[in-house]
Amino acid sequence: MGESATTSYSSSPSGYGIGPPWLFRGRALYQLHLVKAEIARAFIPKELKLVEAFGYTLGGLFLAHYDDSPAGVFDELVVIAGIVWNPPTSCAWASRVLVNSHEACRHGRKEIGLPSHVAIFSKRDAKASDQPLYKHRTSFIHSKPKEHSEIQVLEMEDYSQTSICNISLPFAGDRWMGPKIRISLPSFSGQTTHNPQLLKYSCQIECRVRAVKSAKVSRPRIIQLDEFSNDIRAKEKNVDDRLSTENEERDRSIAVLLSKPIMALEFNLLKMQVEAPTVVAT
Description:
Layout: E1 3-8, E2 22-36, H1 37-41, E3 49-50, E4 56-68, E5 74-86, E6 89-99, H2 102-112, E7 116-127, E8 147-157, E9 160-169, E10 180-190, E11 198-211, E12 216-218, H3 227-235, H4 237-257, E13 260-274, E14 278-279
Parallel strand pairs: 6-7, 6-10
Antiparallel strand pairs: 1-7, 2-4, 2-13, 3-5, 4-5, 5-6, 7-8, 8-9, 9-12, 10-11, 11-13, 11-14
């Protein structure tokens, strides 16, 4: 199989100092999954009500590549655990956010209250034939006929790298990008170590949207851990306790990613404006 691989990781200077709203431009895949309510409920604060029916809620993933942002060029994978009720509408709850930018991670944690983590996005384009692969540069979602893109997401923590998932993005079809739309995606966040308050924020999105075939998400087979890091963790019980909780949250987020997809939307010519969060009275 012919292939070309790139490991994407950004350390661009921060532009978040300009203040809100923060503007992001690029492209994304927004995929909805049926997530078991018992999995989603473990992430949801007790004061919020999960929207569910027959034991399931709507979760999924938001996979984006930003060509322009306050943190420069970077990739993002948002794991959406479920939908919570916020009369007269509902809001999404992210269980984990993975970005290949330290600046974007710090901003997400401190300013937006997101459970952000630094990650490596390893991308590979592949096709069934043995012909040399054409390396496209416009999008990891678009590709030539009979091609697909493979993305491996590795979370970085101290001295270790943990494989979160492998995402296979199928050939997206013709170049028709769909109608132009404007939508608002409200979300809750906060109640994390870095931002303990319950917050609410919204993303104002303008893009061209179309339905596409769902991406396939597979479970990682290999977890790479640094031996020195393991020795340190074994000696520190408080660190062990923290890691145990962190590992449980990571595993539940992987379960969300592995849940059944029901719809996938491709966002092209994406312009996303993120408003400053507000504190929710509890």
